[in-house]
Amino acid sequence: MACATNAISLSLSSNPNSKLSSDFIPKLNRPVNVSLCASTSAELDPGRLFLSRPIGLSRRICANATPVMDQSVGERSSSVPTIVEVDLGNRSYPIYIGSGLLDQHELLQKHVHGKKVLVVTNTTIAPLYLDKVVDALTKGNPNVSVENVILPDGEKYKNMETLMKVFDKAIESRLDRRCTFVALGGGVIGDMCGFAAAAFLRGVNFIQIPTTVMAQVDSSVGGKTGINHPLGKNLIGAFYQPQCVLIDTDTLSTLPDRELASGLAEVIKYGLIRDAEFFEWQEKNMEKLMARDPDAFAYAIKRSCENKAEVVSLDEKESGLRATLNLGHTFGHVSNRNWVWIWRVATWRSCCSWHGYGC
Ligand SMILES: NC(=O)c1ccc[n+]([C@@H]2O[C@H](COP(=O)([O-])OP(=O)(O)OC[C@H]3O[C@@H](n4cnc5c(N)ncnc54)[C@H](O)[C@@H]3O)[C@@H](O)[C@H]2O)c1
Questions:
Q1: CA-CA-CA-CA torsion for 310, 314, 320, 323, nearest 10 degrees?
Q2: By the 8 A CB rule, do 99 and 234 touch?
Q3: Which residues belong to CATH 1.20.1090 in the chain?
């Protein structure tokens, strides 16, 4: 495994300043039907395949695709989304993953409650994707009206003052309890919109449309929502699960390289701390991920979501296991620094926590 670590750090550091323009990036359009679900065989579709996890947990992954390590990265097919289920009893929800999902209007529309929707986004994302999301919500659905609130962009705005802008808009628009909030953006928007949905009228329906790798593989899944306080990050918040997470992988085409790298740190995290097979796959495919290969990305998002969904379904409120996922944030947030350094710190921390040294 020492070899493996070096291999990944080399491929990560080999092209840290690559300039990839969005028109160079092909569409991600190879869906694979895989779902994470409870282990009782009665709940399983015939023909689904059990995969034992290398992590010694009691639940198992069941999938109706071939085992993940054997998936060929060349085949492309229909626009059927990959679906990963987050199994939380009556708060369970699907994560849809695929290319062109914002054009499949029924996917979003079936999760909307009531006739009023508030899209929460920011000044960077709005010009790129707001119209598309409004279309997805309203096409063939004339009874729904959509309001939006466009927040300033950046972690420094993840605070009470910005949160109030969401409540102001919701109250001015006379939204009632049967409305739906939609988070359109990265982790900052997802966390703020989710918290607003948890608090507005003591809780309204909520949908996540994550647009960064970080948000697609981590922050949009699992229901942690919140804002920062001047004395610390994410100190004010709530556990509040969405109705669905819709990951249209085409949105990654506009993501800056720096944000891509930061999100990849989260992908590596799952391999490091709980999924040896995925770690091996990353060794072989890291250069493809850095080059935004669409099939490699579709697979990495799916596998990451499966890992996150499994952890969340075992420890929703972070009483133990879920805290291990915070590793990725530690090094993901320093992604401007040298990748080899990040990798060494991450690996060292991971080994320490694995062996109980409490780092
Ligand atoms: N809730 C959780 O479980 C959880 C987990 C991890 C991190 N987080 C939170 O997530 C936040 C970080 O999220 P992030 O890394 O996504 O950062 P971010 O939301 O700030 O997004 C990064 C930048 O990319 C821009 N952007 C987003 N999507 C884009 C797109 N498709 N094209 C072009 N630009 C795009 C954003 O406007 C922003 O400028 C932190 O606040 C962190 O606390 C939450």
A1: 30
A2: no
A3: 20-60+256-358
Full-model pTM: 0.77
Query: What number is the average pLDDT over the span 74-88?
Result: 76
What is the radius of gyration, based on Cα positions, of the chain? 19
> 82-252: what fold?
Rossmann fold (3.40.50)
Mutation test residue for ligand 1: of 22, 130, 214, 251, the one with most atoms within 8 Å of CB: 214
- CB-hemisphere CA count at 13 Å for 271? 25
Q: Which residues have a Cβ under 8 Å from the Cβ of 93 and sit 6 or more positions away?
A: 85, 86, 241, 242, 243, 244, 245
Alpha carbon of 259 to ligand 1 centroid (Å): 8
CA distance 156 to 259: 16
Q: What is the pLDDT of residues 128-180, one digit of tens each?
A: 999 999 999 999 999 999 999 999 999 999 999 999 999 999 999 999 999 99
